[in-house]
Amino acid sequence: MSANESPAGRKPTATYDSAFLKACRREPVPHTPVWFMRQAGRSLPEYRKVREGIAMLDSCMRPELVTEITLQPVRRHDVDAAIYFSDIVVPLKAIGIDLDIKPGVGPVVERPIRTRADLAQLRDLTPEDVPYVTEAIGLLTAELGATPLIGFAGAPFTLASYLVEGGPSRTYENAKAMMYGDPELWADLLDRLAEITSAFLKVQIEAGASAVQLFDSWAGALAPTDYRRSVLPASAKVFRAVEGYGVPRIHFGVGTGELLQPMGEAGADVVGVDWRVPLDEAVRRVGPGKALQGNLDPTVLFAGTEAVEAKTREVLESAAGLEGHVFNLGHGVMPSTDPDALTRLVEYVHTQTAR
């Protein structure tokens, strides 16, 4: 089932006719919907206040705190969708992987996966592993009403990169060495991660998420042939696993201009585009039958209102011929972004695209 079809046997939810979900389904919208990656937190002073003294992973496991942080940008910016506050390594932590998110560094894995024996660390994820997710989404959907909630997960390649490298990397030398040198082990690793990711997304959808996004943050490090052979099958498995729910599925990566065609083939309904490729060119690469999401350069928000509006008009003009367009940044909100600039941007897009 695609996102253009009503879920069989299910009544439309309160969010079904929202501008965001309509755009994902490539239907006419009252205005171009807007949301921002990493809008839940990052630049908001109210976020920093409620997170004070609480470690990142701990904050992801407190339903009331997750609810408050997720709602903050909806209240402040009037965005058209909320994004669930969490981190891509949460499902890995939930199944017992010894990792932590170190400030200024990112996820660090105590025992990197380098051999077949190391795969034993990756057991199946069940709803009982993440009860805080189900509880938080229940709280959120009650508060959000007609505003959709986007669930999310890290894609198998990006999770594998952290697990094999042991933390963030600029070269991915260990991950690529496994991918090239032991393709069977690599395929088995990504397949297990696809199972874990699928289970994590299912928990979010069954709890009430209206859409899901798969973040393949580091896929831009790959050549198209390597992506098709060594990554695409696992991402496609995730999208197939949640297809039957009938919720829009979004696929996003950074620096993936050369990968837009195979990323579109993975099975998502919406393909996210970073700022490096104009949307009218991106739609040619992705192919027909997909909505696009993006793609204002997040650094433009530091340039002042006039520059922001000028670059926003460029994005909207580039998107003019699209069947479906969700306005977003080309990557996440940067921590030092002025929150008022985001509020003004939402209002500007809504005003410029009102139909």
Task: Summarize the structure in words.
The chain starts with 18 loop residues before the first helix and ends with a helix. The chain is an alpha/beta fold and 355 residues long. It has helices spanning 19-24, 45-51, 56-59, 63-77, 90-94, 131-144, 156-165, 173-181, 183-207, 224-230, 232-242, 260-265, 279-286, 305-318, 339-353, and strands spanning 82-83, 99-102, 106-109, 149-154, 211-216, 249-253, 270-272, 291-293, 325-326.
Q: Which runs of at least 5 residues are low in confidence (pLDDT < 50)?
A: 1-9
Order of helices and strands: HHHHEHEEHEHHHEHHEHEHEHEH
Rg, Å, rounded: 19 Å
Strand order of the largest sheet: 1-4-5-6-7-8-9
Percent of residues in helices:
40-55%
Can you give me a brief rundown of this structure?
This protein has 355 residues and is α/β, with parallel strands linked by helices.
Question: Tags for this entry?
Answer:
alpha/beta, globular, 355 residues, two-stranded antiparallel sheet
Topology:
Blueprint (H helix, E strand, L loop, with lengths): L18 H6 L20 H7 L4 H4 L3 H15 L4 E2 L6 H5 L4 E4 L3 E4 L21 H14 L4 E6 L1 H10 L7 H9 L1 H25 L3 E6 L7 H7 L1 H11 L6 E5 L6 H6 L4 E3 L6 H8 L4 E3 L11 H14 L6 E2 L12 H15 L2
Parallel strand pairs: 1-4, 4-5, 5-6, 6-7, 7-8, 8-9
Antiparallel strand pairs: 2-3
Helix pairs in contact: 4-6, 6-9, 7-8, 7-9, 8-9, 9-11, 14-15
